[in-house]
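Exercise: predict the fold of this chain.
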Amino acid sequence: MRKPFRCTARPELKTSSLVVGWHRDTGNVAPMVTDFLNSSLGSRVFCEIEPREFFSFGGVSVEADIIQFPESSFFYNEKTNIVVFKSDQPNFQHYKFLNTVLDIAEQFCHVKELYTISGFLSPSSLHDSPRRILSVFNQPAFREELQGYGLEDMTWEGPPAISSYLLWVAGRRGIPGVSLWPEIPFYLGAHEDPRSAKSLISFIDKRFGLKFDLTGFDSMIQEQEKKITLLRQGNAEIDQVLKLLENGIPLDEEEQLKLVKEIYTCLKKEC
């Protein structure tokens, strides 16, 4: 039977830690984190999951005049033993897809632990406030191991996300894992949230002792906050709405939609 993946190299890893991030994540957090890891570590692609069984080609998107085909790629760095899996979310055969991810991680990388990254929209978090990282574990022992890293327990009721499914599949294989969910202000969800991305990179940096240079994220954060400040100065209505949030007062639906639209428009161009 033909395997649903194609590998071009075999990493020499006796053990590894797998970081998983999905494209089109809330606040663009997962792509920002995985791209930063691969660039900073000089990681190389070694394997790709074939899209034929898992993705629909009936509605591929076009961004900046470039067609966007589904991507599911593994990257590795032998000095740090960090493996990054960057992928679109599958349309079909989710269980087989997630097992294929772990088959590759175990067979080629001897994975010992799993970290998934997904943004979580917060109705009360602000763009200039610290980001909490909420977490869900598949083993109590792994939760104890990561005490002291500033992670907070997540309470959630609703349909499970694909990261939760992957965590469950990994747990059935005995692979300890955690889903990391940084809180993202709801009005940044459609754009990007560099502050949340930086919080996750800081966690990974501390966990693996990588000593990353995060000044690039600092510049992005400063630029974003500058734009929002200019918007507030020129738009009294948006300033008032943000003041309500700063005072812990929930917004109604109309105020939320107005804020999301104005912030998105502002960040896509010069305010």
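Check your answer against the key: The two ends are 56 Å apart (CA to CA).
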